Amino acid sequence: MRSCPIAGVIVEPPKIRTDSYFTESKGAHNSLLKAVRTIRSEVSQTCTMITKGGVREPIDALELHQAGVSLLLLEEGYVFSGPGLPKRINELKLSNGGTGRNDSGSRWGLLFGLAILFAGVIALVFSMTLVILPYDEAFIGMTREQIKAFNPRILAFMAHDRMALAGTMISGGILYIQLSRNAMVYRLRWASRAFHVAAIAGFLGIFAFIGYGYFDWLHGLFWILLLPIYLRCFLLTKDSRSHPNSINLSNHSAWQKANWGQLLFVLLGALIAVGGIVIMFIGMTNVFVPTDITFICATPDMLQSLNERLIPVIAHDRAGFGGALVSVGVLVLLIALWGFREGESWVWNTLAIGAPPAFIAGIATHFVIGYTTFYHLLPAYFLIFIYVLGLVFSYPFLKRK
């Protein structure tokens, strides 16, 4: 072996000319790998070696790195494998970066998710029975019987908002539980960040409750009880630094389908979060959309003349529902962005079981109360369509053994 007389070497695979540009020839990776091995056998190990191109799959980069390449410039790999190629390469190379388990932090995260799930179930029961609670009646100054006597659709409308909120909370609880059990327990950095970003967004949503003048003390008490649980979880998991394991070596057909599945779930999470922001804003401003007024058969002025405190109660439900949607949407978005890896079956399971409670509660309540305006339900139908397609496309990749 000879000493390297220069600072480094740049190696490129052979290229061929097309009509208007040069592209890598067939077998470019093998030619590049052979050249790297030959050069490395002739120079010192301290000589820096850089390659340009010849990488379209993670296994290509791993082979070049093992052959002695110091730095890889991907070039055409971005075109054929997308911008996620560096992430896949790094995860394959750093798959042994684990730092043990974090059972205590995971348990507090699990407790956080269970609390939200349990509260969602209780809210679901109330929305299907009493609809409004005694402290709601005390604030409004009317009993549910009096409201029902004036217009029975007012209670039905309030039930539909509260049931949708309950379903969203149940879905959020499931997502938090799954993230704690399957990812945060292994100190995965991405899982900890996704958990905390979504949780903080959920806590900030409490300010939407008072945007129209009504503060639900039961909601406030729930968040006060939930806050120390979250803070304990945050303190135990904020230093998570582990890298996820990766078994993905090539751009096989399951990976190609999963790209569409991941894109659909990213779109799903983003749309849910944006929809939550819109609903939260409506709850703090106009409160009703045109189809709401058509269903209730009463204008806001008529409701205001009946009782000036009725609209603030309706508004607080709507704003609270929007805040919950933002938190769940952020969770789905970040899991889709950071959690998609070959063989990560728990990610598919989480998305498969996490979404139905929100979708079922949101759709079923409309049919129960007779609020079936197609235009009003169209966004929900579209989200379900995206969700089902995402599950189908991502199944072979995430469930791969």
**Major sheet characteristics:** 3 strands, parallel
Q: What's the Cα radius of gyration?
A: 27 Å
Taken as a percent bin, the fraction of beta residues is under 5%
Helix share bin = 55-70%
Question: In short, what is this structure?
Answer:
The chain has helices spanning 28-42, 58-66, 77-81, 85-93, 103-128, 134-140, 144-150, 152-182, 189-204, 206-209, 217-237, 253-284, 290-296, 300-306, 310-338, 345-354, 356-369, 374-398, and strands at 8-11, 15-17, 22-24, 48-52, 71-73. With 401 residues, the chain is mostly helical.
What would you say this structure looks like, in words?
The protein is mainly α. The chain contains 18 helices and 5 strands. The chain has helices at 28-42, 58-66, 77-81, 85-93, 103-128, 134-140, 144-150, 152-182, 189-204, 206-209, 217-237, 253-284, 290-296, 300-306, 310-338, 345-354, 356-369, 374-398; strands spanning 8-11, 15-17, 22-24, 48-52, 71-73. Helix 12 (253-284) packs antiparallel against helix 15 (310-338). The chain is elongated and about 90 Å long.
Q: Which helices and strands appear, and what pairs or packs with what?
A:
Layout: E1 8-11, E2 15-17, E3 22-24, H1 28-42, E4 48-52, H2 58-66, E5 71-73, H3 77-81, H4 85-93, H5 103-128, H6 134-140, H7 144-150, H8 152-182, H9 189-204, H10 206-209, H11 217-237, H12 253-284, H13 290-296, H14 300-306, H15 310-338, H16 345-354, H17 356-369, H18 374-398
Parallel strand pairs: 1-4, 4-5
Antiparallel strand pairs: 2-3
